[in-house]
Design goal:
The chain contains 16 helices and 18 strands. Helix 6 (143-159) packs parallel to helix 10. The two termini are 52 Å apart. The chain is an alpha+beta fold. The strands form 4 sheets. The chain has an 8-stranded mixed beta sheet with strand order 3-7-8-13-12-11-9-10. A 5-stranded mixed beta sheet has the order 15-14-16-17-18, sandwiched between helices. It folds into 2 domains: 11-177 and 233-322, BirA Bifunctional Protein, domain 2 (2-Layer Sandwich), CATH 3.30.930; 335-423, Anticodon-binding domain (Rossmann fold), CATH 3.40.50.800. The chain has helices at 22-39, 53-58, 65-70, 89-98, 101-104, 143-159, 178-189, 198-206, 217-224, 235-250, 295-298, 313-322, 345-355, 370-379, 390-395, 413-424; strands at 4-5, 8-9, 43-44, 50-52, 72-75, 81-84, 108-117, 129-138, 165-171, 256-257, 269-277, 285-291, 306-312, 335-339, 361-363, 384-388, 397-402, 408-412. The structure holds adenosine monophosphate. Adenosine monophosphate binds next to strand 8, strand 12, strand 13 and helix 12.
């Protein structure tokens, strides 16, 4: 049952209606992003918005905040436990195995754009339904893949005119060295349990690394006393981390090392990164990702190296506002067809309908006066108006007004399309 106020059903907390003109900004954002993804050779994968709950329990991880607290899980009519996807990577990994994608190509470059669902406390930049763009590079074991993934994320932001952001990197180790670090963290934290928040006391048991990225003041202080994970890395992870940073340097990407960057999900291994906007407040992470070499195998596929990231489009648009990027306006109306009297309405309707094969056209649907129609034409900022009165009706020669200069010309119907094409520079 929807929440009712004064008898009206309202939207669910943490969801939004993206209305024009904001929706035009979303279109622009997605178009620019798809263009960059194309330059990097990525193709789109469109998966379902809901999956078997087990997919996230197993992949995202039983002990993660997402699985423990944030999933929209429900039983369908057949009693199956299903979950609205809280993130995209598990679905991509599942599809790679289920659809046999690695039989077609050694390297897969797949991206998705779409809504994710997390039951989190809504605030500025944090919603219960939000949009992510994710890009997954599957089948590449080396650090070039890691660096390319970071580069792609950075290029997406630059393409949108953003510049005030910081790339943070770390290594979260592998299945060989991470357990050693987890043990060390447990040892260090066991005397400090009373200084940790309730969430971190739980994390202490399940996933002590997560204490490192807790935002609570007491936990931050405790975390400062713990040696960084980099000191516990095995030789392979350590040298890969150095090479990863060197590759970023080679392509001129500046970054900060952040030993507290551990990412919230279980499947990450080795290179991890996040990009934060410098002007957004508490929710400053624009996106993050890293290497997840074990995930496809965990789901029953062959051992497959992979790296990827997810970027939050809602926050990216907030950054576009913060940096006052000039977003190009949506495509304006090109022609407004106006009728002087009721007699011309039918002709206007027919003319507008046929002009729409080539042009963006508006016509009055409310039987308004010419004055009201011209007001409407101005409000949609049309470039030209075609005005049809008695004389135009009988002669078939129309008055075309250039709405910028106010100049008018007479144009016969058979020449109208060519005239408009020429004047609009099409
Ligand atoms: P994550 O995989 O959790 O690091 O999410 C990747 C990106 O998605 C984050 O850096 C945010 O930009 C965005 N994001 C995650 N959760 C939310 C949310 N609840 N509302 C809006 N954006 C989000």
């Amino acid at each position: 049952m929807g929440k009712k106020e004064k008898g009206r059903i309202q939207s669910i907390r943490g969801t939004r209606d993206i209305l024009p003109p904001e929706s035009d900004r979303w279109l622009w954002l997605e178009e620019r992003c798809r263009c960059v993804l194309g330059r990097f050779g990525y193709s789109e994968i469109r998966g379902p918005l809901f999956e078997h709950t087990e997919l996230f329990q197993k992949g995202t991880g039983e002990g993660t905040d997402i699985v423990l607290k944030q999933m929209y899980t429900f039983q369908d009519r057949a009693g199956r436990s299903l979950t609205l996807r809280p993130e995209g990577t598990p679905s991509v990994a599942r599809a790679v195995i289920e659809r046999g994608l690695l039989k077609r190509a050694k390297v897969l470059k797949l991206y998705y754009i779409g809504p994710m669902f997390r039951y989190d406390r809504p605030q500025a930049g944090r919603y219960r339904q939000f949009d992510q763009l994710g890009a997954e590079l599957v089948g590449v074991p080396g650090v070039e893949g890691d660096a390319e993934s970071v580069h792609l994320h950075v290029m997406l932001l630059r393409e949108l005119g953003l510049s005030q952001f910081t790339v943070k990197v770390n290594s979260v180790g592998c299945s060989k060295c991470r357990p050693t670090y987890s043990r060390l963290m447990r040892e260090r934290l066991s005397d400090e349990l009373e200084n940790l928040c309730e969430d971190c006391r739980e994390r202490f048991e399940r996933n002590p690394l997560r204490v490192l990225d807790c935002k609570v003041k007491g936990c931050k202080e405790v975390a400062q006393g713990v040696p960084p994970i980099l000191e516990s890395l095995c030789d392979e992870c350590r040298s890969q981390f150095e090479e990863f940073k060197a590759r970023l340097g080679l392509i001129g990407l500046s970054f900060q090392e952040d030993p507290g960057l551990v990412r919230g999900l279980d499947y990450y291994t080795k290179a991890a990164f996040e990009i934060h906007h410098d002007l957004l407040g508490a929710q400053s992470a624009l996106g993050g990702g890293g290497r997840y070499d074990g995930l496809i195998e965990l789901y029953g596929g062959p051992p497959t190296p992979a790296v990827g990231f997810a970027a939050g489009l809602d926050r990216i648009l907030l950054s576009v506002e913060k940096e006052e990027v000039a977003v190009p306006p949506a495509l304006p109306v090109e022609v407004y067809v106006a009728s002087v009297s009721q007699a011309g309405r039918e002709k206007c309707f027919v003319l507008a309908s046929s002009l729409r094969e080539k042009f963006r056209v508006e016509v009055d649907l409310l039987g308004r006066s010419l004055q009201a129609q011209m007001k409407a034409a101005n409000s949609v900022a049309t470039r030209f108006s075609v005005i049809i009165g008695e004389e135009e009706l009988s002669s078939g020669i129309y008055t075309v007004r250039d709405m910028e200069s106010g100049e008018q010309e007479k144009v016969p119907e058979q020449d109208l399309r060519e005239y408009l094409r020429r004047r609009l520079g099409l």
